[in-house]
Specification:
The complex is a heterodimer of chains A (500) and B (253). With 500 residues, chain A is an alpha/beta fold. Chain A contains 23 helices and 13 strands. Classes of the chains: A alpha/beta (500), B alpha/beta (253).
Chain lengths: 500, 253
Amino acid sequence: MAEIKTAQFQSASGAAIKDPILRRALTQVGGGFSEARLDAIDEVGEDVWESWREEARRIKIHALDNLDYYLELLHDRVTQAGGHVHFARDATQANEIVSRIANSRGVKIATKSKSMVSEELDLNKTLEANGVEVYETDLGEYIIQLAEETPSHLVAPALHKTKEQVSELFHEKLGVPLTDDIEEMARVARVTLRDKFLQADLGISGANFLVAETGTLVIITNEGNGRLCTSAPRIHIGITGMEKVIPSLQDLAVFLRLLPRSATGQRLTSYVSMVTGPRRSEDEDGPEEFHLVLVDNGRSRLLADPDLRESLYCIRCGACLNICPVYGKIGGHAYGWVYPGPIGAIVSPTLVGLGQAKDLPQASSLCGACREVCPIKINIPRMLLHLRHKLAESPDESERAASTAEKIAANGYAWLMSNQTMLTAAKKVGRLAQTPFVSDGKVSRAPLPLVSKWTAARDLPALPKRTFREIWEQELEGQGEQQRAARNRDNDIGQDGNQA
Amino acid sequence: MTNQVETSLGIPRDEFLAHVRRSLGRGPDVLQPDVSNPVLQETLAQMESRAEEARRRLEAERESLVDRFAETAQLRNWNLFWTGSSEHAVSYIVEVAQAHSGGQVARSDQSALTDLPLDDALESLGIRSVLVKRGDERTQDSLRQQIVESGVGVTGADFAVAETGSVVVLPRQGLSRLVSLVPPVHVAVVRPQDVVGSLDDVFLFRRLEYHGNGGDMGSYVNFITGPSRTADIEMKLVVGVHGPREVHLVLLG
């Protein structure tokens, strides 16, 4: 499984926020994708968009509530089409399955189209250890494979890299001259990878959807690498999470309408490739073998928790990342595992272990933007709160997000806020106590241990000289009655000038 | 290559499904849940009658559908050439071939193309036309090599979708998966009768084919919607990565 660095969220996000290159890239991606998405929705109209979201959600609810049934149907139909279906409980098992297929058939070279699940499994490492040369062929994935990094976005995996960095990378790894021409970089990738496509024995793809009714794997791509991976080599392995199944071919249409528009604002991607089994004897070409590897790897835990099941409805469009103010500041790597952003903050803690990822559900202002843009209307803020609740109440000390000191402070705060006399007294004391630390209406460096943790990253507004309640009592009370009285008078001259 | 594949690696299907079942909270005695999905319960006859209705609708709206397809396709960056004359269609394709083919064109053996006297026109200009046709002497490797060496690939379309501006290709004899993918320029020839309204139409016809054909609708369905593209570096659009950088649509009728 991919290395888990979720426990370093605080230091990683702290570092990310200070990275000017990342800041620029995130502004581009957030703005660009979000605007394109809104244009695409405008074109069809809000009502139509809403009805598509409702329909897609209904299909996903039904499919996941009956996942056992549809997985069995999918298995039967893929088998009927001449394909093989393999079930993997966890990452180790999934990697073993792919390696065994590769080794038993003498595979030397494998080309891959983009697959987040294979990132989750760290499949490339296992294949390479088994003597298989693996080439990522999506341009973004190819870049991060050469750079030995991980994706930082669900849709644009290399968005954190500038063209200068890519040029230097290609220069260093591929021996091509430096350039600032992005088209030239794409050309280099095409030429380098074209040979690999034609030499590869094995093509590996993910799946955006699996259609149970017909046993069909669906991938949605723009570059054409997905089509090449699933057309040119003699073996095709599709590897994906078990939650990707939808019941009928008829259900696919609405997802093809929602996914590209939500992801990049495209009305449809350049290619939608649907694969059903290996080539038939009457086909001119195509893979002789088709394998589908269905991966659990913790997904059944999401399925079993009624409060988290809807996270499995996700179609990985990335819209929640693009809109999220937290992702927009820290980027994908800080989240410490494959799935970043709001949806990652729900999925990762369950897949890697709550104790290891307890900072992720806290990394949200609960503004609700993610829920608003989600094409499947997944209630992400509700699940974040649910996880926070779990973290607060966990019997397992190591899972608890808050320290004992924070708990005592929170309880004290709750008591104070519900006690008028004590609150008034505390404000008076606080106003005096803060005096040496206030400048320009803010406390920038507080001496108390918990408060100083806050002020290390942000300013704390100072307590005002007078509270609203005091202003009200001293100046405004009774004014409403005076104004009413004034309106009732014949003229408005001679009022007292007590208008603050 | 023998196909002595262990049919299933990993954990046995039933064990995997039982775990999913438990996760769903179904009792241990539930082996086959009772799932009612009206879409999947539709009979072949019902599907046929819906398809018949769709065909009638498409026929009645043919003209406006073709207009809409032409309009959407251009928005999706197809270069449109719309003509009622097969002579003009041929000379357009020849023009594209002269500009881009590097002396060789790969074309599929589909009915939309058999009616066009394309090969002779190409040959007369010294451009080789590689026909993907079954039963000839070529091995799969040499066919592939010839497609790789071609600068232009010419195909027909099984469907042209007005909603999305897509050309849909299905596996058939005389059609390599690579002709519309590997050469840097793709020309698709579309006839008015290929045009359907929406994605729903395509999937209805494919479902009907699947169920009417004893559970087989062929190994692939490929939607092509404009040229190959990427924005993976700094969100800047680059056209033409692994697939064709230029796509032409010859709309007949």
